[in-house]
């Protein structure tokens, strides 16, 4: 039987008509990067036997995840704000802070997007292919994340319908994302790779990296990359993994090495360490 690497090389030799150069480059980089990741990442535990218990653990980690993911992006959120938003105390019609505060809008959008990602996890646990679930859910995750901003008039609602339509540059990075006309083809390539990738850890690591590499949106790419990463981790039974704001410098440097130097090892090692820290000890309860 042909190996995954042989099958992927064969697909690269027969790219479908209309494939863009950036999609072909993405597929080749994926083929190269998955090899060291297979050496670094822990083996997937397998889909959880108790999906409800897994989702309960995801709910439990939400406040921590929201705080760190939003803080990495520069939002000034507090545990109290996150608690209020996810507890249902959200009233933009009567509370000026909820209508105008960028931090409050971000916290609400993160909560809404998280619920959509959680729904996607349920579909994965029900047996749907993880790559297809991400293809079908990705844009709805994004719409929910920025719907509060659009409703408050702080975000172009038309931008929720698709990918970016202008060039974007990443502050502090030497990587220049693809020209906007290539984004749709690159994202189609990413979803195809996720659908064909056999290893959940590789789907998680390279799915995250690829979202940052393509930068399909003008804003929100980091949050979307971490949502995709955790959905793909769940598809292998790995725990939801929080990237902490204290680790931002190492995290960004690892992604930079992957995009600029084509060296995925730093990010693979970064992710593997955090997966292992989140995994329960043999025969013991999950880490708090």
Q: Could you walk me through the main structural features you see in this protein, from its secondary elements to its overall organization?
A:
Mean pLDDT is 90; it is low at 7-18. It is built from 12 helices and no strands. The longest helix has 24 residues, at 102-125. The termini are far apart. It has helices at 4-13, 21-40, 51-72, 79-86, 96-100, 102-125, 130-151, 183-196, 200-214, 221-234, 248-261, 265-278. It has a single domain, classed as Fic-like fold (Orthogonal Bundle). With 288 residues, the chain is mainly α.
List the helices and strands and how they pair.
Layout: H1 4-13, H2 21-40, H3 51-72, H4 79-86, H5 96-100, H6 102-125, H7 130-151, H8 183-196, H9 200-214, H10 221-234, H11 248-261, H12 265-278
Summed up, what is this model?
Helix content is 63%, strand content 0%.
Number of domains: 1
Q: Which band does the percent of strand residues land in?
A: under 5%
What's the mean pLDDT score? 90
CATH topology: Fic-like fold
Helix-strand topology string: HHHHHHHHHHHH
Note the overall shape: globular
Under the CATH scheme, which architecture would be assigned? Orthogonal Bundle
Look at the helices and sheets and give the structural class.
mainly alpha
Q: Whole-Å distance between the termini?
A: 43 Å
Annotation field: number of helices = 12
Assembly state (oligomeric) = single chain
Uncertain runs: 7-18
Largest sheet: none
Helical proportion, percent range: 55-70%
CATH superfamily: Fido-like domain
Determine and state the CATH class: Mainly Alpha
Radius of gyration: 19 Å
Number of strands: 0
């Amino acid at each position: 039987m042909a190996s995954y690497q042989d099958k992927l090389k064969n697909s690269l030799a027969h790219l479908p008509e209309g494939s863009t150069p950036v999609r072909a480059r993405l597929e080749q980089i994926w083929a190269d990067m998955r090899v060291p990741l297979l050496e670094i990442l822990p083996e997937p535990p397998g889909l959880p036997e108790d999906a409800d218990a897994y989702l309960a653990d995801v709910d439990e980690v939400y406040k921590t995840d929201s705080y760190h993911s939003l803080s990495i992006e520069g939002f000034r959120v507090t545990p109290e704000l996150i608690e209020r938003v996810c507890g249902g105390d959200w009233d933009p019609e009567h509370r000026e802070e909820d209508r105008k505060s960028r931090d409050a809008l971000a916290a609400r959008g993160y909560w809404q997007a998280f619920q959509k990602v959680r729904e996607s996890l349920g579909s994965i646990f029900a047996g749907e292919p993880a790559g297809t679930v991400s293809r079908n859910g990705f844009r709805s995750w994004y719409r929910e994340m920025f719907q509060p901003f659009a409703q408050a008039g702080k975000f172009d609602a038309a931008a929720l319908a698709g990918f970016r339509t202008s060039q974007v540059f990443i502050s502090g990075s030497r990587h220049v994302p693809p020209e906007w006309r290539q984004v749709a083809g690159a994202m189609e390539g990413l979803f195809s790779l996720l659908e064909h990738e056999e290893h959940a850890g590789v789907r998680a690591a390279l799915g995250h990296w690829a979202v940052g590499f393509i930068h399909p949106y003008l804003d929100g790419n980091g949050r979307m990359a971490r949502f995709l990463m955790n959905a793909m981790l769940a598809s292998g039974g790995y725990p939801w993994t929080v990237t902490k704001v204290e680790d931002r410098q190492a995290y960004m440097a690892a992604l930079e090495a992957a995009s600029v130097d084509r060296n995925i090892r730093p990010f693979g090692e970064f992710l593997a360490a955090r997966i292992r820290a989140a995994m329960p000890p043999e025969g013991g309860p999950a880490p708090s």
